[in-house]
Design brief:
With about 325 residues, the chain is α/β, with parallel strands linked by helices. About 25% of the residues lie in helices and about 25% in strands. The protein has two domains: about 140 residues, Medium-chain alcohol dehydrogenases, catalytic domain (Quinone Oxidoreductase, Chain A, domain 1), CATH 3.90.180; about 140 residues, NAD(P)-binding Rossmann-like Domain (Rossmann fold), CATH 3.40.50. The protein contains eight helices and 15 strands. The strands form three sheets. Strands 3, 4, 5, 6, 7, 14 and 15 form a seven-stranded mixed sheet that branches. It has a six-stranded parallel sheet with strand order 10-9-8-11-12-13, sandwiched between helices.
């Protein structure tokens, strides 16, 4: 097919370990091989995107590169019969935006087995308000509610103003759970209560420094998004037979803990891998979000921006100052 030129955020290495970002025109001929060409209408900004945009080789190995681990749009062409021109689709995870040109470009080309048809009852924008963050929150909540009911006790959500945390708070509240939110932002109380948190504790209060092997038990479930000392404290404070999920390491990748919470209280710790989640479970989570998990969001929860506004928002998310979700809208003319 005839090549298409389009706008894209391009990150370039100008000198060794020195990176710049700019909005540039690219062509569909520049995109990698793949089964499906998609015209992207919406993407979203995640912490991993910000890392890729600053040249973090733990996320993206080769530059120039276009980040964006999420994309939602319309199929332009497909080599696989499961997808047809005009289908509305979304992609989260896999290699999109890491080493494969991502959703901060107006077009992507990807393998068919990365692509999910947009669930009925959900718009493209709604799918990107969720994006990888919402999908990760959904996987975490799904794991907790398999074993824990609202009557079993409080659920702790750490990093609660971030993308994963805020959607986890909203979803758990919708499902009837009593949610306690952890936040390091002193002005976040109103926001967290609007999305469903019943109580809020500070980051300092959520991180025990006593070194004790177990603490007074409180949490029936935990959705942890930060790792490190806060995750270790949550595990040591969990009730017998509770469920703890972990999906992030912005605080630390290290977990300084002993086995006592697991062998004395039967605490269950589950890692959440949303990037490579099997497709059958992926489809199940997206169907839930389009049906009984459908969320409504308060004013200020989601900010819609253009490619030109990414620079400012990348800086905010790297400083831990982003609240809620940021959706990137490609205004195709």
């Amino acid at each position: 097919m005839e090549k298409i030129t389009f706008n894209s955020l391009v990150v370039e290495e100008t000198q060794k370990n020195q990176f710049t970002r700019r909005i540039a025109q690219r062509s569909t001929d520049d995109l990698p091989d793949g089964d499906i060409l998609i015209k992207v209408h919406f993407s979203s900004l995640n912490y991993k995107d910000a890392l890729s945009a600053t040249g973090n080789r733990g996320v993206t190995k080769n530059y120039p590169h276009t980040p964006g681990i999420d994309a939602a749009g319309v199929v332009i062409s497909s080599k696989k019969g499961d997808f047809a021109k005009g289908d509305e689709v979304l992609i989260t995870g896999y290699d999109l935006g890491m080493n494969t040109s991502g959703g901060f470009g107006e077009y992507v080309r990807v393998p068919a087995d990365w692509v999910v048809k947009l669930p009925k009852g959900m718009t493209l924008k709604e799918s990107m308000i969720l994006g990888t963050a919402g999908f990760t929150a959904g996987m975490s909540v799904f794991r907790v509610i398999q074993d824990i009911t609202p009557q079993d006790g409080e659920i702790l959500v750490t990093g609660a103003t971030g993308g994963v945390g805020s959607i986890a708070v909203s979803l758990l509240s919708k499902l009837g759970y009593n949610v306690v939110a952890v936040s390091g932002k002193k002005d976040a109380s109103d926001f967290l209560k609007k999305i469903g948190a019943k109580d809020i504790i500070s980051r300092e209060d959520a991180a025990d420094k006593s070194g004790r092997p177990v603490l007074k038990s409180r949490w029936a479930g935990v959705v942890d998004t930060v790792g490190g000392e806060i995750l270790a404290t949550a595990i040591k404070s969990a009730l017998p037979w509770s469920v703890v999920t972990c999906c992030g390491m912005v605080a630390s990748a290290d977990l300084n803990i002993n086995v006592f919470p697991f062998i004395l209280r039967g605490v269950k710790l589950f890692g959440i891998d949303s990037q490579n989640c099997p497709m059958d479970h992926r489809l199940q989570i997206w169907r839930l979000f389009s049906d009984e998990w459908s969320l409504s969001y308060p004013d200020g929860f989601c900010q819609e921006i253009t490619l030109n506004e990414l620079e400012h928002n990348i800086a905010l998310i790297l400083k831990g100052m982003q609240q809620g979700r940021v959706v990137v809208h490609h205004n195709h003319n």
